[in-house]
């Protein structure tokens, strides 16, 4: 299974392409003439204003229409929880564990949010509707099948993020629909500023994100994994999607001389150990430079693999850049 930068000038170009405006990307003639070493200019990012709306075409082309601003929102996957947290909204109910992370609500407050039974794959429709939601947000390729059962009772919004740009788009769309435009702009600016700072001082070491619950691991690739989509501009990340049937072997990973390895252990049911510990049984594992040098980082999969939103990605950037230095 598969899931699903560079010097100063490059960071300026990348930010402009992403829609952010950077100030201080040039060198003044006075500075050049004096030949004095000046501190690096602080990256300044501006974002486009968000306009409140009750209907829109979202970042992926889907139409969403509401009678009024939603007050009760049920989240069926973690991007929804991430976005609502950024906007200062607590979901009426959730289907993920990301809210318990200290960067979100924390364990105590997260326990106050009802959990939809049935698990991520098959959340119970009756339980969803029992919360009388104005809006239900799910992952398109997993929860799209619920749309007919929810039709007429609530509005269902299927999101399908593949890159961090998609996640920012969904943040903006949700801010517009909920009227939390100032909060949305602030969250986007905070994330884009952090990303622009990371891009100014990219690492030259080879990084890799792998995920799984056992020896049959997957490689997170920038084309299909939101967290991985950040990496090409902050590290050497030579991993490309091979489609649904593609996979990478430990032999290939060993051949790429991976310097820093991030591991997402995906738990199903009772936790039964870390993925890195299971892979350690393979004799090739210990030969990978990251393993030999103690640069294997078990990360929180709720944030790295499932969060997908600007708050989660901010945490990913903090942890990744610290490890890549």
UniProtKB/TrEMBL annotation:
Its cellular-component GO annotations read: outer membrane-bounded periplasmic space
**Amino-acid biosynthesis as UniProt keyword:** no
Positions of the Fe/B12 periplasmic-binding domain: 72-325
Q: Where in the cell is it found?
A: Cell envelope
Q: Where is the signal peptide?
A: 1-23
Task: Output the GO biological process annotations, alphabetical, semicolon-separated.
Answer: iron coordination entity transport
What is the protein name for this chain? ABC transporter substrate-binding protein
Source species of the chain: Streptomyces xinghaiensis
């Amino acid at each position: 299974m598969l899931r699903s930068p560079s010097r100063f000038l490059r960071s300026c170009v990348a930010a402009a392409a992403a829609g952010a405006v950077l100030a201080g990307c040039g060198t003044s003639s006075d500075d050049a003439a004096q030949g004095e070493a000046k501190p690096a200019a602080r990256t300044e990012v501006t974002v486009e204003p968000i306009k409140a709306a009750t209907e829109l075409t979202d970042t992926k082309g889907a139409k969403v229409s509401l009678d009024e601003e939603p007050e009760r929102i049920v989240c069926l996957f973690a991007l929804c929880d991430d976005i609502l947290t950024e906007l200062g909204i607590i979901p009426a109910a959730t289907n993920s564990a990301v809210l318990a992370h200290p960067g979100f609500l924390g364990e105590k407050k997260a326990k106050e949010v009802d959990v939809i039974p049935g698990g991520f794959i098959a959340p119970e429709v009756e339980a969803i509707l029992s919360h009388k939601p104005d809006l239900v947000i799910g992952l398109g390729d997993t929860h799209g099948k619920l749309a007919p059962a929810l039709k007429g009772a609530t509005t269902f919004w299927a999101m399908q993020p593949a890159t961090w740009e998609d996640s920012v788009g969904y943040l903006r769309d949700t801010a517009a629909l909920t009227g939390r435009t100032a909060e949305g702009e602030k969250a986007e600016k905070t994330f884009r500023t952090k990303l622009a700072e990371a891009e100014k001082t990219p690492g030259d070491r080879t990084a890799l994100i792998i995920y799984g619950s056992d020896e049959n691991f997957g490689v997170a690739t920038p084309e299909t994994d939101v967290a991985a989509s950040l990496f090409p501009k902050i590290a050497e990340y030579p991993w490309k999607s091979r489609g649904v049937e593609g996979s990478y072997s430990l032999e290939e990973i060993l051949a790429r001389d991976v310097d820093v390895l991030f591991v997402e252990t995906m738990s199903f049911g009772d936790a039964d150990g870390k993925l890195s510990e299971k892979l350690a049984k393979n004799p090739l594992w210990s030969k990978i430079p990251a393993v030999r040098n103690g640069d294997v980082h078990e990360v929180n999969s709720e944030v790295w693999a499932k969060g997908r939103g600007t708050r989660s990605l901010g945490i990913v950037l903090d942890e990744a850049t610290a490890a890549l230095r």
